[in-house]
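Take one record.
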Amino acid sequence: WNEDGKGPSIWDTFVRQPGKILNGDTGDVACDHYHRYATDIALMKQIGVRAYRFSLSWPRILSRGHGVINQKGLDFYDRLVDTLLELNIEPFITLYHWDLPQALQDQGGWGNRDLLPYFADYAAVVVRRLGDRVKFWTTFNEPWVVAAYGHRKGVMAPGLTDPKLAAQVAHNLLVAHGMATQAIRAIQPDAQVGIVLSLRPHEAASDSAEDQAVVAHRSTTAWYLDALFKASYPEVSLRALGANAPEIEPGDFALISQKLDYLGVNY
């Protein structure tokens, strides 16, 4: 978690807060993929895996989220990608799987609109290094979890409980997705770019307008899919959020709703 120049992430901070994680466990070592990747990939080959979807650690590549590039971090992903390709396993890279650099959180994190271009810059750094071998790029994994669990319920990093902030983060993540999509395609025009959402069906208790409206609002499916494919948010959701609705700038939906090459569904 802190080897070869990697900076701290919001999860490195969160797991060290007393009472947040059962037994006080951390992700410092976990399955130790950083050191065991070659053995792990050999096992993938043995069981017939043809593609490996994995997530990059932003603070491993840019310890403070922007500025100086940590070459040792990029070197690791170079080795990982090359080892996969040697065994004919297709790399599917996810740019963000919840571990924001702590240095950016200290500046307001995903709630700070001014920081969103840093995500596009990070995407560009990675694509310039790996884009000659990697075709498939996912911007975000489950942005709903980041907003709802990290900023409204507070049970995941960064552990905040602010409903207005959570709604703004939900919007800002999608704007950052759009910025990163543009950055990737500017460097690698033939890249396959998508996003991975956690989707689930919701069934109303009755046919009443009230129950139907509750389901429409609570369905994260509509919020994210409407933004990505209809360039709007559901009116029922905006009404339900009321004063907590996010601030939306002109041009945001044009950024968010760019054509995707694929939609990843975690179900």
